[in-house]
Amino acid sequence: MNNYRVFQMDFGKIYGLLLDKAVKKGRTKDEVDEVICWLTGYSTAELEEFCSASVRYGDFFRNAPRLNPNRTLIKGVVCGVRVEKIEDPLMREIRYLDKLIDELSKGKPIEKILRKGEG
């Protein structure tokens, strides 16, 4: 799938997929929301609003109120690609979220996922 198609996807649909992945592994909606809010600066109320509105996934990241500066500490592989090596800045932001949800789903403590105390 090319980047353009990913950027055009509906945020609500992607959010549902991310939530399903985490919940199936015993995590909660609140934890998923906390991770997304930490990364983007959106509030949980805004996330709820975006799920019912028609917001494109690319626009969700382009318009994020304050991307967390510690997001650059996120390292690792998602879909066979190292997130820190992704050249397209928007795709890198999207893959940061994918990596955080992967960590959440694998049972990593929320404090470590949110890179608290690092940086």
Break the fold down into its secondary structure elements and pairings.
Layout: H1 3-8, H2 11-24, H3 29-40, H4 44-52, H5 57-62, E1 77-78, E2 81-82, H6 89-105, H7 110-113
Antiparallel strand pairs: 1-2
Helix pairs in contact: 2-6, 3-6
Radius of gyration: 13 Å
Residue runs with pLDDT of under 50 for 5 or more positions: none
Estimated share of beta-strand residues? under 5%
**What multimeric state do the chains show?**
single chain
> For the residues shown, what is the average pLDDT?
94
Give the termini distance in whole angstroms: 33 Å
The total count of helices amounts to 7
Spatial strand arrangement across the major sheet: 1-2
* Residue share in helix: 55-70%
Order of helices and strands: HHHHHEEHH
**What is the number of E strands?**
2
Structural overview:
The protein is mainly α and 119 residues long. It is built from 7 helices and 2 strands; from the N terminus they run αααααββαα. Strands 1-2 form a two-stranded antiparallel ribbon. A hairpin with a 2-residue loop joins strand 1 and strand 2. The radius of gyration is 13 Å and the shape is globular. The termini are far apart.
Which properties best describe this structure?
7 helices, 2 strands, two-stranded antiparallel ribbon, mainly alpha, 119 residues
Give a short synopsis of this structure:
The chain is mainly alpha-helical and 119 residues long. It is built from seven helices and two strands.
